[in-house]
Amino acid sequence: MLSFATLNPSTPFNHTPSYTVCRILNRNSLLPSTFSLPPKSNPYCSSSTDRPLRVRAIDAVQLFDYESKLAKEFTISQRLKIAIVGFGNFGQFLAATLVRQGHTVLAHSRSDHSAAAKKLGVLFFQNPDDLCEEHPEVILLCSSIISTERVLLTIPLQRLKRSTLFVDVLSVKEFPKKLLLELLPSDFDVLCTHPMFGPESARDGWTGLPFVFEKVRILDEEHRVSRCEKFLNVFAKEGCRMVEMSCEDHDRYAAGSQFITHTVGRILEGLMLESTPINTKGYESLLGLVENTAGDSFDLYYGLFMFNKNSLEMLEKLDLAFEDLRKQLIARLHHVVRNQLMEDGERLQQLDGSNSHALIRRARNGSALLYSRSNDVTLLSSSISNNSSPSDENTKLKIAIVGFGNFGQFLAKTIVSQGHQVLAYSRTDYSDVARELGVSYFSNADDLCEQHPEVILLCTSILSTVKVLKSLPFQRLKRSTLFVDVLSVKEFPRNLFLQHLPPDFDVLCTHPMFGPESGKNGWKNLPLVYDKVRIGNEESRILRCCQFLDIFASEGCRMVEMSCAEHDWYAAGSQFVTHTTGRFLEKLGLETTPINTKGYETLLSLVENTVEDSFDLYYGLFLYNLNAMEQLERFDLAFESLKKQLFGRLHSIYRKHLFENEEQILALPERSTPPQKSEDSDASSPLSKTVDTK
Q1: Boundary (domain end) residue, out of 193, 213, 244
Q2: Residue 138 domain-assigned?
Q3: 353: Cβ–Cβ under 8 A, 6 or more apart, which residues?
C-alpha cells in the first residue's frame, strides 16, 4: 500500500525521489482512479508541467506476496517428521526421496549408518530411546521380514506420542498387519504398505511402479487422516501407481507373482547363466531377472516363503509343473526311440550279424544323424574383393523357400522387399498367402526344382527336416545349388546336409535368433548366426553366399560367424533354458495381477513368447542338441538345491525352537526347591545325578 501527502504544486521537494520509487509511482494500477501524476515532476520523470509530489510513506514492498506466502505455508504443512527404523539399503533408498521432498527424516539401526545418514541429510540415532523422544509423527519400519518382530519389541513405545502412525514396507502383508495390531497400543495408527520396487528396479524413477497399501487402523480424527494422506502422497507425487488392497488379497496375488519371480530368479542363478555372443531377447530378460533377484538377500526370499501362507502351495505347483514338462519330453523321446527300434528291428532280419550290431547301437543312441560327422569336408571362409562391384541385377538371387509356414512367410516378406525373386513350396497349400507376398508358389517339388533356384532355403520344423530333405528331387537342381537351413539347432542339420546332399552342393547353416514376434519392429541388432560349412572355391559361389548373408546384414542384424558345435553349446545354455523356463511357467497358468512387478512382467512376456512356438520346436531343441539333456538336469538340480536351502532353513529354525523349549524345561528343577536326597533317589534317578553334578 502507498500513502500520499496532499499534493501542493507550490511546495518544492526536499529531495529527489529515487529511480525505483519513480517507476513504482508511474504504475497506474497503484494510483487512485481520481489521481494522475504530472508527466514531469523530477529529473527522472519529465513532463511539460512541473507538479512536485511528496511521498510520505511506502509500505508496499514486502518479502513475498500473499499467494507465495500461502504456497509456502501449504508446503510446510505437508512435511512430516519420519523416523526410519532399519536404515539398511532399502531404508536409505526411501530416505533419499523423503529428504528431497522436504520431510524431516530421523533414523535408527543396529548397525552404525551415521556416515550414510549424514550424507543423505538424515539425523541418525544409535539409541532408540533418543529417537522416540524426538516424537516423530511416523515410524517407518524398514527392517527385514525375519527381524521385524524383534525390532518392534525393542522400540520404547512409551516414549512416543500416543497418536503415532506406524508404517511397514514388508514384502508380505498379513504377517506385519497381525503383528502391529497385536503389539501396538490401540491409540497408535497402523498403515501397511508395500512399495513393489527397490533401488535396482527404480533406478530410473518410480513412475508407474505399484505401491500397495491398506489403512489398517486410522482413527477418525482430522489430523490423523491428514497425516496418513500426506505419507501416501510421498509416493503418489513420485508417480507411483497407488493400489489400495487388503493385506490378504496382496499376499494371495504376491505368492503367484512376486514369490514365483524370485523363485525362478534363484533357480536360474543356480545355473550360473552368463551372457553369450548369441543372446536372444528372452535370454536377455532372464539375465536381467537373475541380476535383480540376486541383488536381494536370501533373508528376503526366505521371508517371502516363510511369512506368506500361499508360498508353499506355489512352490509345490512349480515343482509339479517342471516335473510334468520333463515327463512330457521323456515320453516324446521314448516314443521316437521305440519307433526307431521297431523300424530297425524289421531291417535286422535282412542284414548280416555285423551290420545288425551296428544298427542296434544306432537305435540305442536314438538317431545316428545326431552323432554323424564328416571328416572329408574343408570349411572355407572368404569374402568378396573390395574392387568387385557387381551390377544390381547380379546382386539379386532366386531363392526357393521349402516349408512356407509362419517363419518361411516371415522371411519371404523381407527377401521380396529387397528385390529378390522368391519361390515357395510346402505340403500345405499357401498359394493365397504367397500371392499376397509376391511369391511364386509351387505345390509340386519337381516343378519348384526345375526352376533352378540358386538357393534352397529350408524353413521346416526340426522334426520334419529329414523327411522333407529326402523328398526333394536333387537331380532336377543345378549341381552348384546352395542349401541353407534356419533351424534352432545347428549340428543336426549340418550333419544331415553333409550326409544326404551331393558333394557338389554348397552348404550354409544359419540361425536367425528371432522370429515374427521379436522381429516385428525390425531386425536391427538381432543376431544372425552362420557357419559356411561347405562353399566352393569358385568366385560365383563365394559371391552367392555373401549375397545371401547380406539379406540379413542390410537389415541391421548382428552377424555372428560361429561353428555349429559352438552354437549348440551356447544355445543349450541360453535358448533351451529360456524355452524351458517359459514352458513350465505356462503350466502354472500365470495371469496378470493388479500388483505386477517388473520381474513378473518379464515372466509373463516370456511365457507369451515361448507358447507362440509349437511344442515340436521345443522338443527339437531338446532332442537335437547334445547339450540340452545336461541343461535339463542342471535345471532340476538347481531347483532341488533351492528347495533344500529353503526347507533346511525352516528345519533349522524349528530345531532351534524345540531345543530352546527343552532347555527351559530342563532348567525348571533348578529354579524349584531341590528334592531331599536319599540313597534310593540317588540310585534310581539319573536326572538327579545330572543336576547334582551341575
Answers
A1: 244
A2: yes
A3: none
d(CA 84, CA 99): 12
Query: Domain check: are 234 and 94 in the same one?
Result: yes
Strands 241-244 and 398-402, by their bridges, are unpaired
Query: Do 185 and 322 have their domain in common?
Result: no
Q: What is the distance, to the nearest Å, from the Cα of residue 690 to the centroid of all Cα atoms in its chain?
A: 59
The DSSP letter of residue 675 is P
Whether residue 230 is found in the same domain as residue 253: no
- Please tell me the total count of domains within the chain: 2
* Mean pLDDT, contiguous 10-residue spans, the chain (694 residues): 42 43 42 45 48 56 56 68 96 97 96 96 97 98 93 96 96 95 97 93 92 97 96 97 96 88 91 88 89 82 86 89 88 76 57 43 37 32 40 78 96 97 96 97 97 97 93 96 96 95 97 91 94 96 97 96 94 89 90 87 89 85 87 90 87 69 57 48 39 36
Q: At what angle do helices 564-586 and 598-611 cross, to 10 degrees?
A: 110
C-alpha cell at 348: 535286422
Distant-in-sequence, close-in-space partners of 474: CB < 8 Å, separation ≥ 6? 449, 501, 502, 505
The SS3 of residue 517 is coil
Please tell me the pTM assigned to this model. Answer: 0.63
Residue 286 inside a domain? The answer is yes
* Domain-ending residue, one of 587, 618, 633: 633
Same domain flag for 126 and 95: yes
- Domain residues for 270? 248-344+454-633
Question: Do 323 and 461 reside in the same domain of the chain?
Answer: yes
Lateral strand order in the sheet of 104-108: 123-125, 104-108, 81-85, 138-141, 165-168, 189-195, 210-217, 241-244
Query: For strand 165-168 and strand 440-442, is the pairing parallel, antiparallel, or unpaired?
Result: unpaired
Distance CA 538, CA 542 (A): 6
Report if residue 86 sits inside a domain. yes
Q: Residues 317, 232: one domain?
A: no
| H-state helical runs in 612-627 | 615-623
In a domain, 662, yes or no: no
Closest CA to 538 of 497, 500, 494, 482: 482
Cell 533344500 belongs to residue: 644
Interatomic CA distance for residues 441 and 422, integer angstroms: 9
Q: Say if CB 233 and CB 178 are below 8 A apart.
A: no
Helix axes 615-623 and 628-671, enclosed angle (nearest 10): 90
d(CA 209, CA 665): 51
